[in-house]
Amino acid sequence: MDSRAAAIAVNGPAPTPLETWAASHGLTGADAEPSAAPRGDGVPNLVKFALGLPGSIPANPANLPAVGVAGANLAFEFHRASDHVRYVVESSTTLAPG
Length: 98
Description:
Elements: H1 17-24, H2 45-51, E1 66-70, E2 73-77
Antiparallel strand pairs: 1-2
């Protein structure tokens, strides 16, 4: 009988940055989903991740995006915390979909 042993490790895909963020804040299962808001604050995990907010506590409203008027323009201010999120501004002259 051969006394040498071999080990084979099978690894799945590396976690995404969002998955790593969720795990670092103790979020698992359904609470770790991008659209979940497990802290009861109504702020989805993906938004917290994108803004650099902690997932382990409810979001502080002072750290959420702010909307205001600057002269004749609408101003939307937020803290960009992740290079792993694509930020897109969309506009419409109506509230109709499409």
